[in-house]
Amino acid sequence: MAKVLLVNPPFYRLLNSHYNANSLGIAYVASYLNSRGHDAWLYNADFLNRNSYVKQNEIFEGFDNYKKFFENEDHDLWEETVDKIIEFKPEWVGYTSYTANITAIDIISKKIRQKDPTIKQVIGGVHATLDHEILNKLSSIDYSIQREGEHAMSALVEGRDPKNISGVVSRDENKLIYNFDADVIKNIDSLPLPEREKFWGLSEDEKLMVDVSYICSIRGCPYRCNYCASPAHWKRNKTQYRSPQSIIDEMQHVKEQYWNMKKKYDFSASANTKSKNELIIEDNSTIYFVDDIFTVHKERIKQILQMMIDKKLEMKWKCEARTDHLDEEICQLMKKAGCIRVKLGFETGSDRILKIIEKDETTDDMRRGAKLLKDAGVPFTGYFMAGFPGETDEDLRQTIDFAKEIEADYYSLSILAPYYGTKMYYDMIDEGFELDKKPWEYFFHQTGDLMVNHQISPEVLKEYLSLNNLNTVRKGYV
Ligand code: B12
Ligand code: SF4
After folding, report:
1. Quick one: DSSP state of residue 64?
2. Residue 444 has what pLDDT?
3. Fewest CB atoms within 10 A around its CB: which of 277, 367, 410, 438?
4. What is the pTM of this model?
5. Is there a single domain that holds both residue 83 and residue 222?
């Protein structure tokens, strides 16, 4: 039996906010390990014992303070994280990684190595999957795992030779040994439900503050938008779907096990919603389907929604979708089945830019989809971006007009950052942008630090950002 701690590194805390939700990637790896008799726990180093969240614009205004954490590797916050990990006495530590987390993982893993060199350290998740060379950059990490971690991590902790485990990158003297991506898990229904109990370092009261209502029903996305990391992370043609029955079972499980707990915390997590009570999202009493496009298969989604209604689940939920994967029947069923928010990536109001970013969707598709939701009475958040390569003032003006026209219930406005691993990232490097020289921790959008478009005039950009006066919210919650 191996003792394993799976860590979600600090991120929002460094921006003066926090995120208390259960991180599904490591929760799946933990439950799989536990089902095989190991002792795997989750440690969310981003957790904070308070219920105030800062607004989206405040998060990004705090970017300078955020940078300071990375300049001081001995900051108390890193020491606190390391102490919590050491206190667990793990044999194995596994970090989940978005690109923005890599420097934090480097700082933490080096300190762990110094304090106890016997602990084996592994990195998995999005960045580890996208960056085959990550072990060359993280000197204290022993193994990196590409794509799904359940099988590869259990093979590692069970002592199989890393050189022969699919998905594992290891070191041999001075070179790396690759084993390609982990084999795709074809039957995701067969996986145990994600871990929702073993939270390291939290008191019983604090455990009630972890939002365990996140559900993943699809692994992957069949589209190819060139600013998005999903196609490279999951591989478009390998998208896997859970059965409707297993999703309903998980919803029922969450409701019965966790929604009746005595809550000692104001669960209204949306920071900017006081004026519209009906739109407040409450942690731990709203299911969040984290799938890239929950509605991607029309017949499948209709079946799921009908089952939610027939089983009288009466649970609130939110999801991500595309406007071209909605129809009247789906929207009506969504409303009846308890949907309180659909997150829609409109990105731009310019059809020219939609083509350039290979969105495979038009503004007319978007108008149609937004109207279907409105007619059915399902609230939606509109996600927009500015600063695409080649975008002109005229394109951005079209975005501003379009954003107003569609009358979303909430808006999330970003300045584009080409994420590591996206087609756009490599195209920009080919064009001479030195994105590969930027610190990892800059790789999240909205700050403008990774802006690649210098032809948009400051006035129009300001006008776009002033849409902030519309109902903008903290990213992630709506
Ligand atoms: C939900 C979500 C969030 C939530 C996370 C909430 C939470 N507590 O989990 C919120 C809203 C907070 C969020 C925030 C951000 N997100 Co986000 N998010 C997602 C989303 C939609 C789903 C993630 C998920 O749960 N997947 C389901 C699980 C099962 O999959 P998984 O995490 O990949 O885990 C599997 C493997 O990767 C692997 N694995 C994962 N971790 C580990 C660890 C070990 C040790 C091992 C062995 C294996 C392993 O095994 C898992 C099971 O097979 C993805 C897109 C997507 N579909 O993946 C984007 C995505 C991960 N996010 C992204 C980004 C950019 C961000 C932000 C930077 C955005 C921002 N500006 O704020 C922040 C960063 C937050 C941070 N902590 O650093 C990008 C990452 C791109 C990149 N190169 O880093 C993605 C891919 C979106 C995209 N399409 O481009 N996000
Ligand atoms: S932006 Fe959405 S639709 Fe496009 S590839 Fe990414 S997840 Fe799929």
Report:
1. H
2. 77
3. 277
4. 0.96
5. no
